[in-house]
Amino acid sequence: MTAPLIQTQNLGKQFVSFKKLPGVMGSFTSFFKRNPIIKNAVEDFTFTVKAGEIVGLLGPNGAGKTTLMKMFTGIIVPSHGELKILGHNPWERDKALRKKMALVMGQKSQLWWDIPAMDSFLLLQKYYEISDEQFEERISKMSELLGVKDLLHIHVRKLSLGERMKMELMASLLHNPDVIFLDEPTIGLDLVAQENIRHFIKQYHEENQCCIIITSHYMQDVQALCDRLVLIFDGKKSFDGPIEEFEHILGHEKSVTFNFSCPQDPKHSFFSSLNTKWNEELTQLELRIEEARLREVSAQMIQDFPVEDFQTEKLPIERVMKELMNNPDLLRKKSP
Amino acid sequence: MNQFLINLDKWWITIKISWVKHTAYRLNFLLQILGPAIVFLFVKYNLWSAIYKGQPDLVIKGFNFQDMIQYHFWAFVVGLVAQGHGAWNLAEDIRMGRISSYLIYPFNFWEFHTASWISFQMIQIFITTVTLLIFKSMGIIQLPGSSLFIFGTVYTLFISCFWFSIQYLTGLISFWLEETWILRVSLNIVATFLSGAIIPLDLYPEALVKILNYTPFPYLSYYPIQIFMGKISSPMELSLGIAIIGIWTLALTYINHLIWKRGIKLYTAAGM
Predict the structure, then answer these.
(1) If you average pLDDT over residues B52-73, what whole number do you get?
(2) Which of A105, A294, B139, B243 has the most Cβ atoms closer than 10 angstroms to its Cβ?
(3) Backbone φ and ψ of B155, nearest 5°
(4) Fold for domain A253-334?
(5) pLDDT in the model for residue A269
């Protein structure tokens, strides 16, 4: 199966809203004369996703990630361009397609609030026409993996956010979908719950080789799960490639931070040729070193200076992401 | 299992789940049963007793005291079965972007909403039956002959379908309008007034009644009440009501289908 599962060509979505001046008079005048504001939420978005891929969809708030997800899942209708999921137009909402797709929304519960999760699962079992054996097997397996076996019969409104999220995940994976859309699945969760969810998704993907599109603002999620990243700014795709390439988007430098036991002289000749960033007390130095020179420079630092400890950054993509968000023009220079 | 049974199964489990949802809050549920009955007893019964007080032979437009109480009781029963379901959720679901889940599940939004309504109707019919039995045992009402009673019940269920389809329509308008609350409240008030649910249509000016007969309104309350009171019993008159309400319901259902198809294109799934 190498045919693309998701294929888009110049996909776009425009939202029309109406400008309303504040206050009663504003309401009155806008009743008679409406000033439309057209916003391009997504523009000319072209990409393909193959079976088994996990793609991270990144971008600042309002960049168009969620709009894309809504178009992929057929919740909203694209304004222009082409979109095929498993060969279907998702907005026609063919039941055959809906049975192969799942959406998890971190910000919105799909489970019924007033009933235990298990009742919702039973409902979904019928909706997706899952056989009893498969249903039981998946429930027991997933609840084991997520550690929620004892919570299945508790009213959803009484569960904690983390527990509920696990139930949401279970609910959307019961029918063994081919394509899974996860919209910020770890939002608002504590560190342990985040890790549990990540671990679960990773394991689930390894076993089922499904295709996953995930959006998240937590770079740990992306780092742990995704092989490929797609970056969106202002509705436009501005990067699409493997995660390693993304790390190097701003050059092949590594960032190493050294802590010294006493203040150092930043004017020392050793530092003159390096890209340095000191803290106020001059006891901490962040160095940006060319990958090729990393060993040499670090060794010399440790030898010549009172280094207490040092660390290389754990999440280079976080730094890249921050810099890009502060300065989106960087990307334009990189990809003319 | 063939596909029909599988689908039936989906409907049935949705009905059961909605049942749990409707009765999840017990106090609320209890008040829902007791509330209308208490209002009926205290307000309407007392009002009309006061009007007829001391004049046992008073007849207003063909209604003596007993008839008037009968009329209002049956108006109450018809309202309970036909108009109990507010469909308030529908508009809110659309506006708050809550229908997204139903766009993703392989069970359509209208199917879900209809199943939820059926389940509500089952509860409502149970409540009505209990109310009927209580009022009957208190001697406040008389039941018509069994065939008229069954006919009246079936007719009232038709009316409830009509109400469901029109409320569904007002809900769908939320695709275009931010707030449809006023619209729905006004529809309810106008309908209650013009259908004879507040006072018998016999008390209205004749000219108005003549005009009303060309609208579906009298068939929503006045007609079924007349059936339950045994005042309409010719097969011709009986089938007229069903035909009119049936045609309106079918037309509304078709309109709903068209409106949904247009509206869903405007849906922005606010907040996802």
Answers:
(1) 86
(2) A105
(3) -60, -45
(4) Alpha-Beta Plaits (3.30.70)
(5) 84
CB proximity list for B59: less than 8 A, separation 6 or greater = none
Q: Mean pLDDT lowest for which of A257-271, B23-37, B38-52, B75-89?
A: B23-37
Q: Which residues of B31-66 are buried (b: 16+ CB within 10 A; e: fewer)?
A: ebbeebbeebeeebbeebeeebeeeeeeebeebebe
What is the per-residue pLDDT for A1? 46
To the nearest whole number, what is the mean pLDDT of chain A? 87
Would you give the DSSP letter of residue B217?
A: G
Contact between A66 and A217 under an 8 Å Cβ cutoff? The reply is no
* Mean pLDDT over each residue of chain B, to the nearest integer: 87
Q: What is the pTM of this model?
A: 0.83
Q: How far is residue B205 CA from its own chain's centroid?
A: 26
With CB atoms and an 8 Å threshold, state whether A123 touches B17.
Answer: yes
pLDDT at A326: 83
Q: How far is A127 from chain B (nearest CA, A)?
A: 6
B182 and chain A in contact, CB less than 8 A: no
On the question of pLDDT at A318 being above 50, the answer is yes
Cβ under 8 Å to A: B residues 102-161: 103-107
The answer for residues whose C-beta is within 8 angstroms of residue A106's C-beta and 6 or more apart is A165, A182, A183, A184, A185, A186, A187, A188
Closest alpha carbon to A290 in A258, A250, A325: A250
In chain B, what are the domain boundaries? Answer: 3-266
Q: Given an 8 Å threshold on Cβ–Cβ distance, is B264 in contact with A114?
A: no
A108: distance to nearest CA of chain B, Å? 7
> Nearest CA to A85 among A58, A47, A55, A56?
A47
Q: Where are the domains of chain A?
A: 4-247, 253-334
Average pLDDT, stretch B6-32?
84
The DSSP code for A159 is S
pLDDT in tens, A67-116: 999 999 999 999 999 999 999 999 888 889 999 999 998 888 888 888 89
CATH number of A4-247: 3.40.50.300
Is A73–B21 a contact, with Cβ atoms under 8 angstroms apart? no
| Rounded-to-integer distance, Cα A332 and Cα A35, Å | 33
State which residue of chain A sits closest to B267, comparing Cα positions.
A76
- Going from the C-alpha of B35 to that of each of A155, A189, B199, the distances in angstroms are 28, 43, 20
Query: How far is residue B37's CA from residue B33's CA, in Å, rounded to a whole number?
Result: 7
pLDDT for position A30: 67
Q: What is the ipTM of this complex?
A: 0.82
- Secondary-structure breakdown of chain A: helix, strand, coil percentages, each rounded to the nearest 5: 40, 30, 30
> Are A4 and A49 a contacting pair, CB within 8 Å?
yes
The torsion angle over the Cα atoms of residues B180, B185, B187 and B190, rounded to 10 degrees, is -160
For the stretch B91-113, pLDDT in tens is 878 877 778 888 889 998 899 99
Given A76, A107, A114, which is nearest B20 (Cβ)? Answer: A114
Contact (CB, 8 A) for B150 and B227: no
> How many angstroms separate the CA atoms of B24 and B18, rounded?
9
Whether A76 and B267 lie within 8 Å, measured CB to CB: yes
| pLDDT-derived band at A31, boundaries 50, 70, 90 | low
- The pLDDT tens digits of the residues spanning B227-243 come to 999 888 888 888 889 99
